[in-house]
Write a structure and sequence with these properties.
This protein has 468 residues and is α/β, with parallel strands linked by helices. It has four domains: 123 residues, Rossmann fold, CATH 3.40.50.2300; 175 residues, P-loop containing nucleotide triphosphate hydrolases (Rossmann fold, 3-Layer(aba) Sandwich); 70 residues, Orthogonal Bundle (Helicase, Ruva Protein, domain 3); 55 residues. Helix content is 47%, strand content 13%. The chain contains 20 helices and 16 strands. The strands form five sheets. A five-stranded parallel β-sheet has the order 2-1-3-4-5, sandwiched between helices. The chain has a five-stranded parallel β-sheet with strand order 7-10-13-6-14. Strands 8-9 form a two-stranded antiparallel sheet. Helix 1 links the parallel strand 1 and strand 2.
Length: 468
């Protein structure tokens, strides 16, 4: 692994000396001003920055502040001509990894750089292990559509915190547990446990003892040795509360106390316990409606949903249907000792047009059935059992279908296809906004999109392409 270093110093002798001494070990880029260095960093971020404080124009402290804002993952070592306490404290306050003093001693510089890059190496290895785990352990997780790619980019950002609560919302079968796993294995807690709790499956009178544990003799039927709770099992990791909308109001109150203070008591104990874990929760229920009905605590909702992730349904991300189907086809072929390699064109059309009310889970079941009963090597429409069923869009697609069936008018000189396609999409956004009185959430529902995807596509539809 060869690391890259960006050096910013106004003294040419230092730039040349460092490049000669470290060039055989690292990829070095050297500049004399902060402005040049920042431009190079934006173009190609390095692993490490060596930044002089006393630069002409923008000084090193201001440059450090900008680097931390735009590239917080890049480590910065400051270079100062004298050990001024105020300057050094300012640099460390803004996030400098370390500092060195002029005149630069190469032995000391190499040691400082080596320590910094060791932390970079470990961070890259952890990231690589996380990605490998996701590929090996979440084989049904496919995110090729723009809609789910947006969700995954958002997850990559919010997962960086070790304990910020995250609430995942989505229909049944959209893969909320897979999303929770992705959050865990992209987080600083990835080496800790990932503990899943199905709140709907625990009897209401046992929820407290299951979550928080109990001491011996705490209640009738309690084990003689007591029991650790699931929250303790998730220490330094992630606690995933699936179907959190099924918790009783009493259990909600106790969960809220834990979320607020990271402290709890086992049932039957007076000893206060504290630990750190991230709580990720999920539900397919309408928590807003439940709050209005008094069935879900409003304060708990806001505590669980410091960050909210909305998972689009499979009907909202149709670009994932065929990649998912192919993934399931290969998985079940291997599991059942079959030799399926492809899906027929008719079957692909049926999969794409079908309305997946059960989302990814339904698609998975359809492919499993097809692999079990079908004849290799190609999965046919009859194998799927979807022949004759209503198409995915149904009546909601009739207007679009009528337009698509109409013969397009193409003049002899040709058209700008991308611009015509943009205008086509724009008309539907304008009409949906007109029908909803400008309410974007209602307009998104009319178009069968989630709000995040609606805003992303609306911006593209209303923005004419730049012409070079």
């Amino acid at each position: 692994m060869r690391f890259s270093i960006l050096l910013v110093d106004d003294e040419e002798s230092i730039r040349d000396g460092v490049a000669i001494a470290l060039g055989p070990l690292y990829d070095i880029r050297a500049f004399g001003t902060a402005e040049e260095g920042l431009a190079s960093l934006d173009e190609k971020p390095p692993d490490l920055v060596l930044l002089d404080i006393g630069l002409p124009g923008m000084n090193g402290i201001e440059a450090l502040r900008r680097i931390r804002e735009t590239h917080p993952e890049v480590l910065v070592i400051m270079i100062t001509a004298y050990e001024d306490v105020h300057t050094v404290v300012s640099a460390m306050k803004f996030g400098a990894y370390d500092y060195i003093i002029k005149p630069i001693l190469m032995d000391g510089l190499e040691t400082t750089i080596g320590n910094a890059l060791e932390s970079v190496r470990l961070r890259k290895e952890v990231r690589l292990l996380q990605e490998r785990y996701l590929q090996d352990n979440l084989p049904g997780f496919v995110a090729q559509s723009d809609e789910l790619q947006d969700v995954m980019k958002f997850i990559a950002q919010v997962a960086k915190s070790p304990d910020t609560p995250i609430l995942i919302l989505g229909e049944t079968g959209t893969g909320k547990e897979l999303i929770a796993s992705a959050i865990h294995y992209r987080s600083p807690n990835c080496k800790g446990p990932f503990v899943t709790v199905n709140c709907a499956a625990i009897p209401k009178d046992l929820v407290e003892s299951e979550l928080f544990g109990y001491e011996k003799g705490a209640f009738s039927g309690a084990g003689p040795a007591g029991k650790r709770g699931l929250i303790e099992d998730a220490a330094e990791g992630t606690l995933f509360l699936d179907e959190v909308g099924d918790l009783s109001l009493e259990a909600q109150a106790k969960l809220l106390r834990f979320l607020e203070n990271a402290e709890f008591y086992r049932v039957g104990s007076t000893k206060k316990l504290s630990l750190r874990t991230r709580v990720v929760s999920a539900t397919n229920k309408d928590l807003q409606q439940m709050m209005e009905q008094g069935l879900f605590r409003r304060d708990l909702y806001f505590r669980l949903g410091v960050i909210t992730v909305k998972i689009p349904s499979l009907n909202e991300r149709r670009g994932d249907i065929l990649p998912l189907a192919h993934t399931f086809l290969l998985n079940f072929s291997s599991k059942f000792g079959k030799k399926f390699t492809s899906i027929s064109p008719e079957a692909r059309d049926a999969l794409t047009e079908h309305r997946w009310t059960g989302n990814v889970r339904e698609l998975k079941n359809v492919i499993e059935q097809g692999v079990l009963v079908g004849k290799e090597p190609e999965l046919s429409l009859d194998d799927l059992g979807l022949a004759g069923q209503a198409s995915a869009g149904g009546k909601a697609r009739s207007g679009v279908d009528a337009v698509l069936r109409a013969r397009p008018a193409i003049p002899p000189e040709g058209i700008d296809f991308e611009e015509e396609e943009r205008k086509f999409r724009k008309r539907y956004f304008e009409e949906a906004l007109r029908m909803s009185g400008g309410n974007e959430s209602q307009a998104a529902r009319l178009l069968g999109l989630n709000h995040h995807t609606f805003r992303f596509r609306k911006k593209k539809a209303f923005t004419p392409p730049k012409r070079g």
